[in-house]
């Protein structure tokens, strides 16, 4: 029976008694691939839709643990292999990058974001809470009026969030909020003068 390949990371699986006097070389190749799959960086320039390269024996892009995408404004779509795998993804492009296996759902990474994505071989997801990605959950909770957590931003330009210890609300800045400003400035000026 010949050697075979592991399904997700394409490591060569030796058959008993095969590759006499070659096992060290083959084992070292597998260990190098394992190292890349656990801690390897891939920098991948994008200029359009693309797929991560895969190969059984040689090095390949899809085996990388972490990927930094570079390129222009996009948007870009990157197809990843239809196998279980996780990636740390850094979008260093100036436009969004969508990761997909060709099936739904997919993950879109905004410019500058670094996210963890995982696939079961079909769906691509990012860690989340309550069915939403962490980013979407925080945005929905912190920046919209959601069950009294924080007041909505709409119509509150130039105001600040103030709380009485129980309820937050948007308020305009008043002189009462600055009543100790002059004292604080004098104290800083005195401290600065003494330091000199």
Order of helices and strands: EEHEEEEEEEEEEEHEEH
Number of domains: 2
Rg, nearest Å: 26 Å
Q: Number of DSSP helices?
A: 3
The separation of the N and C termini measures 82 Å
Indicate the proportion of strand residues.
25-35%
Structural features, described:
This protein has helices at residues 23-39, 134-142, 181-195; strands at residues 4-5, 12-13, 41-46, 50-51, 66-71, 76-79, 84-91, 97-100, 107-109, 114-120, 124-125, 128-129, 132-133, 160-163, 168-171. The protein has 2 domains: 4-142, no CATH class; 154-196, no CATH class. The protein has 196 residues and is of the alpha/beta class. The chain contains 3 helices and 15 strands. A hairpin with a 6-residue loop joins strand 8 and strand 9. It is elongated, with a radius of gyration of 26 Å. The protein has a 5-stranded mixed beta sheet with strand order 3-5-7-10-11, with helices on one face. A 4-stranded mixed beta sheet has the order 4-6-8-9, with no helix packed on it. Strands 1-2 form a two-stranded antiparallel ribbon.
Short description:
The chain is of the alpha/beta class. It has three helices and 15 strands.
Summarize the helices and strands and which ones pair or pack:
Layout: E1 4-5, E2 12-13, H1 23-39, E3 41-46, E4 50-51, E5 66-71, E6 76-79, E7 84-91, E8 97-100, E9 107-109, E10 114-120, E11 124-125, E12 128-129, E13 132-133, H2 134-142, E14 160-163, E15 168-171, H3 181-195
Parallel strand pairs: 3-5, 4-6, 5-7, 6-8
Antiparallel strand pairs: 1-2, 7-10, 8-9, 10-11, 12-13, 14-15
